[in-house]
Amino acid sequence: MKLRKVISNAIASDPAYFNEGILGKKNYDYQKYIEQPNTWGGSVELNIFSDYFKTEIMAYDVTRKRGNCFGEAKYSQRVYLLYDGIHYDVLVWNLVPSSPQSDFDVTVFNAKDSAIEREFIKVMEKEHASGKYVDEYNYTLQCLQCGQKFVGNSAAVAHAKATQHDQFGQASN
């Protein structure tokens, strides 16, 4: 809950920047929304976390095969995330590849380390080629509460608003 409060406080502190156009809803409403344990964030939250942790956050979008760096050129360290259309996962580099132990995993890198960036771009490209992503505009979701199916996020969001249903999963074909 602490990190949700960090986001909420940052949004409250700058209503001119964090306006309805940026947030998709009124500033106060977004603050309450993001404080809920079952809501998800995105680029707004990554931008805030970049400043909060004083770390660049490079998020690779597997669907679109592109990266977006939050806090670019502002900080000396960087973390990498992989976005599959639904979730963000942290990318790690294991210093001892033959060891399954996570004790050797590195998640924070020098922001100017182009070699590690190239390696993580390869990971993104491999995930894309393997189809390990969800196209949020064209995939089928199913409401887990009533069973109704929707193509893309916008139809599911409209259903959630109309019914107060908040549990969705990707529908099997």
From TrEMBL:
GO MF entry, a single one: cysteine-type deubiquitinase activity
A Gene Ontology cellular-component term: nucleus
UniProt entry tagged with the keyword Cytoplasm: yes
EC number: 3.4.19.12
A Pfam family this chain is assigned to: zf-C2H2_OTU1_C
Record field: catalytic activity: Thiol-dependent hydrolysis of ester, thioester, amide, peptide and isopeptide bonds formed by the C-terminal Gly of ubiquitin (a 76-residue protein attached to proteins as an intracellular targeting signal)
Enzyme class, first EC level, given as a word: hydrolase
Entry-linked InterPro entries: Papain-like_cys_pep_sf (IPR038765), Znf-C2H2_OTU1-like_C (IPR057766), Znf_C2H2_type (IPR013087)
Main location: cytoplasm
SUPFAM superfamilies: Cysteine proteinases
Lineage top rank: taxon: Eukaryota
Keywords of the record: Cytoplasm, Hydrolase, Protease, Thiol protease, Ubl conjugation pathway
Subcellular location per the Swiss-Prot or TrEMBL entry: Cytoplasm
Role summary: Hydrolase that can remove conjugated ubiquitin from proteins and may therefore play an important regulatory role at the level of protein turnover by preventing degradation.
This protein's name: Ubiquitin thioesterase OTU
Species of provenance: Arcella intermedia
Lineage: Eukaryota, Amoebozoa, Tubulinea, Elardia, Arcellinida
